[in-house]
Amino acid sequence: MWTVDLNDEIVAVWPLAGFDKTLHYRAASGLAERISEGSLVRVPVGRRFTLGVVVGKGVEADIDFTRLKMVSQVCYDQPILTSKLLALAEWMRTYYGAKRESVLETMIPGPIRQGMSAKREKYVSAGATPSGEELEALARRAPKQRALYDFVKQQRAPQKKSLILNRLKLSAATYNALLEKGFIEEESRVQERVAYEDEMGAVEFAAEEAFELNEEQSVVTRSIAADLETGGFSARLLQGVTGSGKTEVYLRAMETVLEKGQGVLFLVPEVALTPQTVGRIRSRLSKYADIQTVVWHSHLSDGERLDAWIALASGAARVVVGARSAVFTPIPNLGLVVVDEEHEPAFKQDETPRYHGRDVAVYRAFLEGALCVLGSATPSLESYRNVALGKYALDRLTQRVDDRSLPMMHVVDMRAEIARSRKSIQLSTLLVEKLRDRFEKKEQSILFINRRGFSSCMLCQDCGHVEMCDHCSVPMTYHRSDETLKCHLCGAETAAPMRCPSCKSPKVRRKGMGTQRIEDAVTRVMPNAKVVRIDADTMSRKHLFRQILGEFRSGKIDVLVGTQMIAKGLDFPNVTLVGMVDADLSLHIPDFRANERTFQLLVQVSGRAGRGDLAGEVVVQTFTPHADPIQFARRGEVDAFLELEAESRERFGYPPYRHLIRQVFRGPNADKVVFFADQFAKRVAERLEGRVETRGPAPCSIEKMKDHYRFQIWYFVGSVAPVMADLVAIAAEINWPQDVIQVLDADPMSLS
Ligand code: ADP
Ligand code: ZN
Ligand code: ZN
Q1: Considering the domain boundaries, does residue 112 fall inside one?
Q2: Which residues in 273-301 are b (16+ Cβ under 10 Å) and which e?
Q3: Is 359 in the same domain as 424?
Q4: Which residues line ligand 1 (CB under 6 A)?
Q5: Residue-wise pLDDT tens digits, 686-696
């Protein structure tokens, strides 16, 4: 029995080890000094070592001090999570019904979790060459040192010390002995990293000057300043038409908070698509020489991610601009949280934990006692409801800056258009006319395709057969470049048939329109115009994307064709025409948010027109010209639309009037999946009687995906967490076979 040092301390740890328990360890007095709440430590669990996060420190009476295992390592000098983030993790666990480990893995970036070193790495190379006798002596008396020497000698370049020792399973003692003899040498190197530079760095932004605020901006800025003066948590919805200067309002609030010595979290739906917002924030904050801004996005290398995290944790950086996962960055003393384009579904993560970045941001602001500003031209029904309930204050910007007018929207009835020309066409007469007009005036146009919905499937004109994927219950998409049909869910691919596979008719038509067809159609009517298309392929090559945007800005491109992906945040002053080629596709998806999405899309897209001194126009092509979202968008009546939509949601008891928890069951054997879904539903009926309204089990709208049959149950609830707890408990009681998978999703955004 060894003696216990009374200066040792007990720490409570959440291990990243696949179970949701808190374990206790003893930290030797030397280590204990470096440990605080939120520290990342290495601890023994069973026979393995695992990483864990310290959640408490200090002796607890009922724990037998002497029987505890020891903390073996403290990974970083600073805590990697703040106490507020630990509380946030607990909230996410209960609200989204996720395992604590998966929450922590989502919160803590990979390189940190892997205990990647923020410090220098030691590199080893061969040193003085030993004589023959010395080599023999080594082999006899210290075979391990000899093995180490031989290995190092063989390497062409210096190798990482940690890797060598691991690989040869050698101790530091062996290594040090050989090092003392001088037969190996070490040098310490800093991993090469470019500090927070990224693709945005290459885009040029004019130095941003603060404007004189207009009347509306001043009013909003004053209310925000009053909130910041009072301090503590509050949330505000900033509803401002596109181009009304919301970003300027955010910037003012940021300045106030930074001058108080606090930090800022700024969330955008996707960083790569909002280079201009990022650029404006950076250039505005560049006047504070001592305030670093971290841009947090998916293209960061491990090293950059680690550096950024440590810079924030240590207080060296105080501002983060980033997508969804930036909501977890460790900003001490957080004063302001901004969520721009708060209505965007991209804030929701579609894998476990299925959290909504906006909702987590609001909850984080609450925990931090910070101000949260949600901004949008077309607020989500959820936020609109929170205003009605008095949870959020509402700020409005109703005018575009400098009295620029909102673009005029023309709605073209494509049914009439087709009746007139007696064939299916992509571009209406009006759109072609306006495109030509802009080209002549050397102004620019953007054409948007609605990506939601299935746009280009293969349809037989004789028997109506639509070519479907063998593995998924969705139509295959036609790709002209290589004459193939591809499934966008599972990637399956076949050659496009010349005849209908069902009735052998040669009249197989490609229905709908992809970006490629639109590009061709524009080129046909304006052979001299430079037309460029941005699609998923372009988006994945960021240099190409940046290059195209650059060329568009400089006027080398006349018409840009793309999906609504590119509608976010882009601000090109010379764009005076925007066309929405197939506005109603998103109306026909089986989702209670279909109207809301279509409306948001139209408003967002038309916001791209007339951003400069020239007035803009929008042409919307549709087969349902009288649909509410289209008519309200045409008239720019955001509030009226929200009210109408809210009424219908309330009538059906849909969100935001109740919360929805969606559960999907899937597996290769449909009967088995249904059996387990039924079992689940039965238990829910017993245990949760009267507390939920259940729909299903029923097939999902995509019944089959990647050879898995999919069924769903919807639970409508007043409050998520208590019901989620029961659902998780029921799921844990069931003995699931390997081939039936069950997933719970609180506040789902995708219902397919
Ligand atoms: P939003 O985010 O609401 O779409 P922005 O913040 O992007 O609007 O503002 C639109 C344009 O107006 C930007 O180019 C911005 O620099 C400019 N702007 C913002 N506020 C003012 C102001 N008070 N005076 C002049 N220009 C402004
Ligand atoms: Zn056919
Ligand atoms: Zn498929």
Answers
A1: no
A2: bbbbbbbbbbebbeeeeebbbbbbbeebe
A3: no
A4: 211-214, 217, 240, 242-248, 401-402, 571
A5: 999 889 999 98
